[in-house]
C-alpha cells in the first residue's frame, strides 16, 4: 500500500489527478433506462490507489468506461464532469484545439467576477462554452503550468490520445488486450512506437526492460514469444508492461486479478504496488473482493446500484465500516468468521436502477432499514462531526444527530443538490441535468 505524501500531491499542486463530479451515465434500452452510474463523485490523487468495490452490476465498470470515453450507444453520459489533470495532455490539446480551450485561471475568474458574475460558479459558467474541453488553470507566460481535460466532453481523437497516453487500463482477461497473432514484444514495441516514438533496437531494448520491470524472467527470450506461450499470471504481467509502455499517469484496473489463483493474484498486487511507488501512478482499482481491496487501496469507494454509498480511507473503512451494505460486504470475506460459521452473503440482488431515486436503493436488503428509508434518498454525509474524510449515504448518519434530524438533513440536502445540479453549479461547466433521463427521453 502506498502512502500519499505531500511530495506526491505537489505534482498537481494539491489538486486531484482525476476528479469525478456528479457523473451520470445511463443506458437507454428498448425496455428501460438503466441509470448505471447515478451521480457519482470521487477523486484520485497522484500516487494514490482508490478502490471501487461493490457487487456485480453496481456500476463499477461503467464508471471506468465513462472516464475513458468508452460509452457507446445505447449508453450516454447525461451529466457531470471528469477532470483529468495530466499536463502533457493539456498542453498538447490546448494547441491542437485552441478553439475548445478555455482559461479558467484565477485572473480570468476574477475578471469575470468583476464584470457581472456573482459567485465563482457564475464566473466559471460565464467563461466556459459547451464545446470547451481543455481547461487552463495556470499560465506562466506562454507556458501552461496547470489544467485539465474533461473526458466527458473531449472529442474522439483526443480521447484516443488520452487512452494511449495519460490513462491506461488493465482488464480481468489479459487476452482481451493481447493479440494472439503478434509476439508480446511486438505488441509492446507498437505501443512504444506510437506513444514514445521509439523503434528498432531501442524499442526492443525498452520492451525487454518493461518485461523485466513487471517481473517476467528471461525477458530477452520471452519478448519473442506469443501470448499463448505465457501462463495466465505472466500474461497479465505482459498486459501491465504494455500499459506502462505509454507512460500513463493513471492506471485503471478492472478486476485484473479475478481470474488468477490466489498466489499469482498476490504477486500481481505486489507488482502494482511497486510500479506505483516508482512512477507515482494514480491507480483506480475495481473489484468485488473486499479482501483484495484491503491489500491494495489507500481509499475505498463502495458502490451500490449506481451510487457510492460509503467512502473512507482504507484502514478506517475496514476498522469502522458504517454503511450496512459495507458491513455486509465485509462479513462475506472468507476467513473473517469463525471456523463454524458459514460464509455470510447479503441476501438478494443489486436492483437495476431505472428511476431517479426517491428512497434508499439498499433498503429492501438492509437489516437496519426503518420507515424513512422508503421515502427519503440518502445523500453522502460525514458519518460524524469528526470524520470529514468518511462519508456514508445512509439515513443512520450523521450519528451525532437524532434520527429525525438526520433524516431531515438528507431530505433537504438531496433537494438542494438537485437544484445545484440542474443549474450546473457543481459540474465544471458541463450540462448536468440530473433529470434528463426522467422525461421519457429514450433516444
Ligand atoms: N451496454 C450496456 N447496455 C445496457 N446496460 C448495460 C450496458 N453495460 C452495462 N449495463 C448495465 O449497467 C449496470 C452496471 O454495469 P457494470 O458493468 O458497471 O457493473 P459492475 O459493477 O462492473 O459489475 P461486475 O462486477 O459484474 O463487472 C448493470 O445494470 C448493467 O446491466
Ligand atoms: Ni465490471
Explain how this protein is built:
The chain is α/β, with parallel strands linked by helices. It has a domain at 87-155. It is 35% helix and 20% strand. The chain is built from 15 helices and 14 strands. The strands form 2 sheets. The protein has an 8-stranded mixed beta sheet, with helices on both faces. α8 crosses α10 (232-245). The site of adenosine-5'-triphosphate has 15 residues, from β2 and α2. Residues 405-443 are annotated as: Disordered. Residues 18-330 form the ABC transporter domain. The complex is composed of two ATP-binding proteins (NikD and NikE), two transmembrane proteins (NikB and NikC) and a solute-binding protein (NikA).
Distance between the termini: 44 Å
Strand residues, percent: 15-25%
Mean pLDDT: 89
**Rg over C-alpha atoms, rounded to the nearest angstrom:** 23 Å
Any ligands, ions or cofactors bound here, and which? Answer: adenosine-5'-triphosphate, nickel (II) ion
- Coarse shape: globular
Helix proportion of residues, in percent? 25-40%
Biggest beta sheet attributes: 8 strands, mixed
Q: Could you spell the SSE succession in H and E letters? A: HEEEHEHEHHEEHEHHHHEHEHEEHHEEH
Number of helices: 15
Please list the strands of the largest sheet in the order they lie side by side.
8-9-10-3-11-12-14-13
Unreliable stretches: 422-443
Secondary structure class reads alpha/beta
The strand count comes to 14
GO molecular function: ABC-type nickel transporter activity; ATP binding
Subunit structure: The complex is composed of two ATP-binding proteins (NikD and NikE), two transmembrane proteins (NikB and NikC) and a solute-binding protein (NikA).
Keywords: ATP-binding, Cell membrane, Ion transport, Membrane, Nucleotide-binding, Translocase, Transport
Membrane topology: Peripheral membrane protein
